[in-house]
Give the backbone structure.
Amino acid sequence: MVSKQQKIYSHFVNQIKEGVLQSGEVLPSTRDLAKLFKCHRFTAMTALQTLVAEGWVENSEKTRYRVSEKVPVTTSKTAQLNSKKSAQFKIVRPKPEIFTERERFRLEFWGGQPDLRLFPKDEFRRILSATLEKTKPDLLNYGHIDGLDSAKKEIAGYLRRTRNLLDKEFIITNGSQEALHLIAQTLIKPGDAIAVEAKGYPPAWRLFESLGAKIIPIEVDQEGLVTDQLEKLISLKKIKMIYTTPLHQYPTTVSLSPRRRQALIQLCEKYLIPILEDDYDYEFHYSGPPPAPLSQETVYGIYICSFSKVLFPGARLGVIACDEQLKEHLIYQKYLVSRQTDCLSQLALAAWLKDGGFEKHLRRMRRTYEKRFLHLQDHLLTLQKKNDLSWHVPTGGMSIWVNLNQDSSKVAHRAKKQGVFFQDEKGMDYRGKTGTHLRIGFAGVNESEIDQGMQTLAECLD
Ligand SMILES: Cc1ncc(COP(=O)(O)O)c(C=O)c1O
């Protein structure tokens, strides 16, 4: 007959071999083992000491027994599982390379990066905690697909007040990326053509492509999207949607000229084409108030914006403003994709808007970013004395699109080696062409960091 001591010993050896217990895991106390195996504590202790003597278990802390860090178990289930061949799934949508965990650099000049070090965490923590305390259980439940009524009222009020979006209905989304998804899912079927800016926002292109859309790139110049080229294309080909960033064009920061703006609206109304207007950084405009979104001038305008820049990207808060009939379809898609947006972040944003804290923070950040913008520009003027640099002076945004008049991918590569990150043109060109521009972000870096980054840039230029 097997003794209790033997039973305890074999129980643990098997569990370790099978990978149920892994290196470092704590074993039950001798008191608990005695209860479990209905034996004397001394019997349990003797079994554990045998395990220690054979190297299965360690008890360096005297009181606690742990699975040894160096158990040579090769027949464990985990090892067996790991050695299994991976499954052969038939992937129907190709996956280009994306960075789920991006490489970090000592200094990063990302074009759209807000300075999250300056986000008033204590103030927002108080808002969040008060919000949770006051929220009725029903608001924490399912439902409210397009946003909680009270939050939507406050957020829509802010957007109407600041953007004059008077005749639109609103949906709160998980960032503007979800907004893009819902709109494309509703209006685009595989094979449909979407016109986009030839230098533009890759996450939108990749999303449209993943839904089977055909992307048609349209050039951008000093007046923004080249509407003449768009018109020619529309006369030749059925375009199902136009995706554009008219206020601070991504990545060139050029604002669509009033002439082109009217041309775009007329084209869309003539050919009944929806304009998907991505207004990702409306709040950061420095030369006075920005023009109202073009979506408020036409029923074909579907407006999206994001709170990633004023709050933080991880908050995942965005908005769609569109016509009432389209809203119903978008709500259905949202129900399918995510059911709703996180209720606490909506309510906290609404409370922060209501108590004025949001706009106070925004004013503070706008002043800070404007100073950084001017500081970066001073550096560029100094660099220009010795180098062939030129740039369009943006009326707003969080970056400057600088023409280095040399291969900007090479310059960015050299800077990376010195621990400084710049976005080069290639990654933002639909055809992936190497260009001569860098998109230099100034919002996420302070003056002294700009000094260091520009020193590195100077060293990396030919
Ligand atoms: C063109 C553009 N659209 C949208 C966004 C914001 O996206 P989200 O709201 O998904 O964070 C960004 C952020 O950088 C952007 O550059």
The mean pLDDT is 93.
